[in-house]
Amino acid sequence: MSRLVLVGNAIVDLVMRVPALPERGGDVVSTDTTFVTGGGFNVLAAARRLGLPAVYAGGHGSGPFADRVRADLAREGIEVLLPPLPDIDTGFCVALVDDDGERTFATSLGAEARLTEADAAAVLAALRPGDLVQVSGYGLAHPAGGPVLAWLIARLPADTRVFLDPGPLVSDIPEDVLRVALARCDWISCNQREGRLLTGLDDARETAAALAARLGPDTGVIVRADAAGCRLVASGGEPVHVPGREVTAVDSNGAGDAHTGAFLALLGSGLDPLDAVRGANAAAAFAVTRHGPATGPTRAELLAFLDGDAATVGSVLLG
Fold first, then answer.
1. Around Cβ 106, how many Cβ atoms within 10 Å?
2. Could you give phi then psi for residue 17, rounded to 5 degrees?
3. Which of 90, 98, 109, 147 sits at a 20 to 30 Å CA gap from 235?
């Protein structure tokens, strides 16, 4: 069976719920504050809960944040590939979630940003035929880690499938690093803002078509549009609108990660891309109805949420 091997960043999120973002120079009182593991952990947990074996192949340090990350990875049954760095803790992110469920971030980097060529070589040696390798724009944008990730991506074997999430820092990724990632990826998934930064286009369908034309017929494209679902371009195809699900959102933090993890789990289980995206849309809709970044559903929860549409993914989830 395929595994998800994530070479991104698993960090700690300091999540603060606020009525609205303060004006510049202002202040706001949080109504609730929690520490949770986030970043790439959200993708790994979403995939693992739907039955896909998962491996964290990113950096991690020594300290309270690193201990929390490793404990949560272990709780979800996710393997950790690299040894901890002894002289630095894992990084953290401050996430402000307003009353509309929208989130705004500020990130402090740590051990996860110190990927070396020796680490990359260890990842290459641990890969198995058929593995799904997920690459995040957060890692690609780092001045030191980005070139190492590009080195790794360029050497990935042909029998691995590469999934690129350019992320909100896509504009900060050096052009030579981004070029390597785009040339090798089998799938790219971005939200509409990230798609606009990559293409200059606002319309989701036009963005998906432009990305597909830029990347070529061997690369699939997903442009996520929150409650409106997403635009899918399967390998060599045309953009298809895959509708979302109407829900009452309480926290959109981690929705894109839930979508990515579910898509990879369903794709890795043998579903065709269209059915995998339908399941991913449902998983993301489920995730925003719960507080917290790692709120992707289990198999049973996704089946219950799908209800009458369970036939779309039921055979895989029950397998």
1. 10
2. -95, 125
3. 147
